[in-house]
Each structure stands twice: as C-alpha cells, then as structure tokens.
UniProtKB/TrEMBL annotation:
Compartments, record wording: Membrane
Protein name: Palmitoyltransferase
MF terms (GO), sorted A to Z: protein-cysteine S-palmitoyltransferase activity
Sequence intervals crossing the membrane: 73-97, 109-129, 194-213, 279-303
Family, similarity comment: Belongs to the DHHC palmitoyltransferase family.
Cellular component annotations (GO), alphabetically ordered: membrane
Reactions mediated catalytically: L-cysteinyl-[protein] + hexadecanoyl-CoA = S-hexadecanoyl-L-cysteinyl-[protein] + CoA
Keyword Mitochondrion: no
Pfam family, one: DHHC
Topology class, membrane: Multi-pass membrane protein
InterPro entries: Palmitoyltrfase_DHHC, PFA4/ZDH16/20/ERF2-like
Domain writeup: The DHHC domain is required for palmitoyltransferase activity.
Organism the protein comes from: Coilia grayii
Keywords from the named record: Acyltransferase, Membrane, Transferase, Transmembrane, Transmembrane helix
Length: 384
C-alpha cells in the first residue's frame, strides 16, 4: 500500500491511489482495533455445534416457551376432556348399542360383545389411569454411583443414558419419549408401556364402536335428513272458501271447520337426541380410530427399532452425520425386533403374554432406567 503525497487527507483516513485506482487507506491503529473487535465478537459467538437446527431452535424458542407454558397450564383440561369424551361414548354404547345387541343378535354374539366390550373398556381405563399416575422416572439429584453420559444445564445434574430434559415438567426424565398433554404427564421409562397400551386399546375400542355402530349411524343419518326435509317444507296455507279447490282440499276444510296444514313431524325430541348421539359416537370414534391408529403404529415402529421419539430424531441426525464419513450408525439400544418387544412389555415367560399383555398388569419395566445394555453385548435371545 502506498500513501499518495498529493491525496486528500481527512483526519486519520487518507485517499490513496495505487495502480491508477483511488482507495481509502485506513491507518494501522484503526485497522488493528477493528481486527481485535472482530476477533472478540467471533470468539464470543463461536460454537462448534452451531448449525441451522440451532439457529431455528433459537428463533423458535419463544414459540416453544409459550407452547410449553400453555401445555402445562391446560394439562388438567386435556385430561378432563379425555375422561368426558370417553365417558360420553361409553354412555351412548350402553344406551344405544347394548340394547340393539341384546334384542337382535344371537346369544353367542351377545356373549362376545359383552365380553369384548367390557374387557376393552377395562384395559382402556386401567392403562390411562396408570399412564397418568405413574411417574416416568427421574435421575438421582444427589451424589450417586449412577453412570452418566452428559450433564443437564437446566437441572444442573448428571444425565444417565437415554435421559432428556422436559421443558414442560421442568425436570429430567429417564428414557424420555415425549410429554403427552392428554396424560398431563411425561412418557418415560416407568410409564411408557402404559401409554402405548392405552393407545392400542383405545384404538381398538374406537374401531369396535365404529364397526358395531356403522348401520346405526347410516339409519340415524337418514333419519336426520328426513327430519330436515320435513322441517324445510312450507307450512300449509289456510283455505278460506272452496271455489276451484273443490275436490282437492280435505273434507273438513270444505265443511268450513278449520284450515289445512302440513302434518307435524313425527320425530320427537328423544328421537332427535338419539339419532344425533349415534352420529356423534360414530364420527368421534372413527376419527380417533384413524388419528390414534396412525400414532400407535408410529410408536409400534419405534419400539420395534428400540428407539424413543426423541432418539428417533437424534439417531437420524447421527446416521446422516456418519454417512457423510462413510460410516454406518448402529442404534446401541436395538436388541432385535422381537427382543425389543419382550423388553418393552416385560415378558419373561410365555404366560406373561396373557397375564402382562392381555390383562391389566402393574409390573415394573425391565431395568432401573439408569443403566442400559449396549448392543452388541446383548446378542443372545431373551428367554421365552
Ligand atoms: Zn434436566
Ligand atoms: Zn414432561
């Protein structure tokens, strides 16, 4: 850089010419100050983990914060909603479906409906209660021998493997899957099975009601449509005198007794309520069966792979990262599809498929949630 003797000087900045071009020459003291400030800013903001996900998380942090607060605030409301909606369906099933079954079905069909319906209801109620009331499990807050893999900056405690922090519960959860607003509880190591069983049995119950009430729904829908058509018909016009209407008007009108009007609808308030409740039941159960069925299948796929919802996201990122280095990521908690299910359901012998899966069971899950076997250490198949 060359300072032009003839160039204009404005305090500490000079305009110089080099190779026929004019440019601004900044003094060394200004340049060094700027370089120092730039380095300082970059040092303060530098983070090896910074990527677009981090930027997005930071930008959406206020949205997440608001959603967390609202979920925590309305947690009890969601639970009440589940109880009220489920109770209303059960009530309609008892008042409408059950009489129909008892009056029209063959005895063995009646027995099947009574047994299946009550077993399904029992399983839904039991697993929902256990899922909401069972704590998901928390890491120790005091000094212990539990091995940990990371540290929670919010709880200021060590985190064992598979443990994650829940922003809504504001605590760390063992083998956290997600925070469920419908349970007003986190789904973690100790209540994961209850949550999944609840989803399965509620889906089955909705499918059962939807299929059983299909014909009733069609009849009720047609009845409501007929009722609407009757209501839409214009009321009869009073007839005064006979004239051209002789032979058309009814005899009582001809005799000058009264005016002729459209007969009132034959539907009573009870009929209307009955038909509408059947439609409500069918629409609600069919919608829940589809939506919850999809969610249940998703969780079944995760369990088959030995992942939680959070680990699914983390493993996907790790898989992509290692793929760029021509390496293959292997989920360390995937012990094989069948073994994963046996571990998840707590099945240790054949009879447990009935006593622990098909009947209400409050058995604790395998392990304490602090320590985990890492693949491939557990290669041998589990007994059963
Ligand atoms: Zn935490
Ligand atoms: Zn939570």
């Amino acid at each position: 850089m060359r300072v032009c003797p003839g160039g204009p000087v404005v305090r500490c900045v000079r305009v110089c010419c080099g190779r026929g071009r004019w440019r601004v020459c900044v003094p060394k003291c200004v340049r060094s100050t700027w370089a120092y400030t730039h380095l300082l800013a970059r040092s303060l903001c530098y983070n090896t983990l910074t990527n677009w996900d981090t930027v997005n998380d930071t930008l959406f942090e206020p949205v997440f914060w608001t959603a967390d607060r609202l979920t925590r605030l309305f947690g009890q409301v969601f639970v009440c909603l589940v109880v009220v909606l489920t109770s209303s369906i059960v009530l309609i099933a008892y008042m409408v479906l059950l009489p129909l079954v008892l009056h029209t079905y063959a005895p063995w069909w009646i027995v099947w409906h009574l047994c299946y319906g009550h077993w399904n209801l029992l399983m839904i109620a039991f697993h929902y209660y256990k899922a909401t009331r069972t704590p998901p499990g928390h890491p120790p807050t005091k000094k212990s021998e539990v091995p940990f893999v990371s540290f929670c900056k919010k709880c200021v405690t060590p985190k064992p493997a598979r443990t994650h922090h829940c922003g809504i519960c504001n605590t760390c959860i063992l083998k956290m899957d997600h925070h469920c607003p419908w349970l007003n509880n986190c789904v973690g190591h100790f209540n994961h099975r209850y949550f999944f069983s609840f989803c399965v049995f509620l889906t089955l119950g909705c499918v059962y009601c939807s299929i059983s009430g299909r014909n009733l729904f069609i009849d009720a829908y047609n009845a409501i449509e007929r009722f609407k058509a009757l209501e839409a018909e214009p009321a009869g016009v009073p007839v005064k005198g006979v004239g051209l209407l002789i032979g058309i008007v009814p005899p009582e009108a001809v005799n000058g007794q009264s005016s002729f009007q459209t007969p009132p609808p034959t539907f009573t308030l009870k009929d209307k309520l009955l038909n509408k409740s059947i439609i409500y039941m069918w629409v609600l159960t069919s919608t829940v069966a589809v939506a919850l069925g999809g969610l249940t299948l998703w969780h079944a796929m995760l369990i088959s792979r030995g992942e939680t919802s959070i680990e699914r996201h983390l493993n996907k990122k790790e898989r992509t990262r290692l793929a760029k280095r021509n390496r293959v990521y292997r989920n360390p908690f995937h012990y094989g599809c069948f073994n994963n299910w046996k571990l998840f359901l707590g099945v240790e012998k054949r009879s447990h498929w009935i006593t622990r899966v098909l009947l209400p069971s409050g058995h604790a899950p395998n392990g304490d949630g602090f320590t985990w076997d890492f693949y491939p250490h557990r290669k041998e198949p589990l007994p059963v």
